[in-house]
């Protein structure tokens, strides 16, 4: 049978993914993470009397801490399974990806296990994050003069 | 290549299952189940070794045989370089052949064993296989704690170890025929839709087996594929009818669908997979039905997706293979 003809048979029996439902859940959960972040920032600014730029760093550290803690306690993967990109796209997803990789390779030792695998998923984000930051920084310098 | 046998009998089998499988509908057919994915070991890989090794120990106890009486051991699994099998068989010191055809490994082992026994090269051969859900997720996909979302077509690697003893001593279950499959490629590249990848291999092997033996699907009480899952099952029926004009009726089912309760165990999505998936179903549930006489003639078609993450990332199509074996209930004279 030709591959295209077989593809038609495969597609005929393909289930519909609940895309709009998934997108809605991700939107709401992602939004909640954003609101929590904003609340944390306001709290830090008020209680510690620090400027917004400093408070945002504290807020990010707090979110990272709780995401990694929840991953280590073993239930964050179930949340991700439910909320999908609602928890993967924010900073919580980045922390979770590193923590889960670290836990996975713990038994292969600190160097050949955790050390070489902790960035298994997060490595691409860092690499392309740095490359695009450099590119847009250059663009800004050329267009807006710095 | 289809072969028929006259002197090969199923002596007995043993199955050890993990926690998800124990919650499934076939829980009463397993010899032992575990609540924990580590099975008391330090890592998932070592847990898999434990599962296969224990299935061999339980099997030897069930048939009341010493390891010296077994001539050959054939085993395979899903982890790189089939290391789980090598560690599992170490304490038994029985001549060992390691094999690999992914989830079709169990039937490949049984075919090789049948050849040795039919040719009187060996009297008793143990065939073992295992897989571990977390071990294979770690090797093939993302870290297990990551919990990446999966589509409905994805299948769930079963956790367990299973062993079967074939021999020349007469019992009421006989291995009567087998077909060695051909590697297939119909251009499927989605590792999260293995049913679509493997259906052509299953169809080809079923067609070859039936036409070589001049049989029809109705000659069997049950035709059972390995791990196509609920969507792959429909693709197979459709494809087999269009390509080979063979119509599968209500006597067709899939081990991946039988192993779990697809309604209540949503984590498994389209069904079970992994080398041990078909072995757990066949060595427990199906053998029991053959022994009781509810089933008289069964065709087992184990299906395997032959791929590695490296080749998949290089955008190569995922290949598949299927091997078939016929089990029949015979009257002891």
Descriptive account of the structure:
The complex is a heterodimer of chains A (146) and B (333). Chain A is mainly alpha-helical and 146 residues long. Chain A has a domain at 21-119. Chain A has 8 helices and no strands. Chain A has helices at 3-12, 19-48, 52-72, 76-83, 85-88, 91-104, 110-117, 122-144. Chain A starts with a helix and ends with a helix. Chain B is of the alpha/beta class and 333 residues long. In chain B, 35% of the residues lie in helices and 23% in strands. Chain B is built from 10 helices and 14 strands. In chain B, strand 10 (222-225), helix 7 and strand 11 form a beta-alpha-beta unit. Chain B is globular and about 55 Å long. Classes of the chains: A mainly alpha (146), B alpha/beta (333). The interface between A and B is medium-sized, with 33 and 27 residues.
Question: What's the helix and strand layout?
Answer:
The complex is a heterodimer of chains A (about 150) and B (about 325).
Chain A: H1 3-12, H2 19-48, H3 52-72, H4 76-83, H5 85-88, H6 91-104, H7 110-117, H8 122-144
Helix pairs in contact in A: 2-3, 3-6, 6-7
Chain B: E1 2-4, E2 9-17, H1 19-22, E3 32-33, H2 44-62, E4 72-76, H3 83-89, E5 96-98, H4 105-118, E6 124-131, H5 133-140, E7 156-157, E8 160-167, E9 173-179, H6 194-212, E10 222-225, H7 229-244, E11 252-254, H8 255-259, E12 272-273, H9 275-292, E13 297-306, H10 309-313, E14 319-329
Parallel strand pairs in B: 2-3, 4-5, 4-6, 7-12, 10-11, 10-13
Antiparallel strand pairs in B: 1-9, 2-8, 6-8, 9-14, 13-14
Helix pairs in contact in B: 2-3, 6-7
Name its key features:
heterodimer; A: 146 residues; mainly alpha; extended; B: 333 residues; alpha/beta; Peroxisomal Thiolase, Chain A, domain 1; six-stranded mixed beta sheet; 35% helix; 23% strand
Task: Summarize this entry quickly.
The complex is a heterodimer of chains A (146) and B (333). The radius of gyration of chain A is 20 Å and the shape is extended.
């Amino acid at each position: 049978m030709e591959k295209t003809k077989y593809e038609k048979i495969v597609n005929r029996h393909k289930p519909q993914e609940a895309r709009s439902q998934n997108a809605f859940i991700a939107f709401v959960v992602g939004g909640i993470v954003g609101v929590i972040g904003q609340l944390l920032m306001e709290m830090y600014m008020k209680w510690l009397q620090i400027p917004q730029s400093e408070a945002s760093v504290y807020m990010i550290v707090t979110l990272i801490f709780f995401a990694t803690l929840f991953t280590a306690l073993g239930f964050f993967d179930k949340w991700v399974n439910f909320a999908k990109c609602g928890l993967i796209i924010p900073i919580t997803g980045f922390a979770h990806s590193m923590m889960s990789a670290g836990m996975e390779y713990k038994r292969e030792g600190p160097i050949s296990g955790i050390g070489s695998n902790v960035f298994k998923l997060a490595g691409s984000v860092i690499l392309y994050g740095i490359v695009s930051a450099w590119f847009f920084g250059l663009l800004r310098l050329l267009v807006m003069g710095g | 290549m289809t072969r028929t046998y006259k002197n090969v009998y199923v002596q007995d089998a043993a199955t050890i299952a993990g926690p998800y499988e124990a919650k499934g509908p076939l829980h009463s057919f397993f010899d032992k189940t575990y609540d924990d994915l580590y099975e008391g070991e330090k890592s998932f890989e070592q847990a898999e070794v434990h599962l296969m090794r224990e299935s061999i120990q339980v099997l030897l106890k069930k048939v009341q045989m010493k390891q010296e009486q077994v001539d050959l051991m054939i085993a395979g699994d899903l982890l790189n370089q089939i290391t789980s099998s090598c560690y599992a068989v170490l304490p038994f010191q029985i001549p060992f052949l390691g094999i690999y055809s992914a989830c079709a490994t169990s039937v490949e082992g049984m075919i090789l064993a049948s050849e040795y026994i039919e040719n009187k090269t060996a009297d008793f051969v143990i065939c073992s296989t295992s897989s571990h859900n977390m071990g294979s997720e770690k090797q093939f996909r993302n870290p297990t704690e990551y919990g990446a979302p999966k589509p409905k077509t994805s299948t769930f690697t079963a956790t367990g170890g299973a062993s079967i003893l074939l021999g020349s001593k007469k019992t009421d279950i006989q291995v009567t025929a087998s077909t060695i499959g051909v590697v297939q490629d119909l251009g499927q590249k989605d590792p999260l839709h293995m049913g679509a990848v493997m259906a052509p291999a299953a169809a080809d092997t079923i067609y070859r087996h039936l036409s070589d033996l001049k049989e029809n699907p109705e000659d069997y009480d049950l035709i059972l594929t390995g791990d196509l899952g609920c969507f792959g099952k429909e693709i197979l029926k459709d494809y087999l009818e269009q390509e080979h004009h063979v119509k599968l009726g209500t006597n067709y089912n899939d081990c991946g669908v039988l192993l779990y309760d697809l309604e209540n165990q949503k984590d498994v999505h389209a069904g079970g997979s992994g080398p041990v998936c078909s072995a757990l179903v066949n060595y427990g549930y199906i053998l029991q039905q053959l022994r009781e006489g509810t089933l008289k003639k069964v065709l087992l078609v184990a299906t395997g997706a032959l791929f590695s993450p490296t080749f998949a990332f290089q955008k190569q199509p995922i290949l598949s293979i299927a091997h078939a074996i016929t089990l029949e209930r015979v009257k002891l004279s």
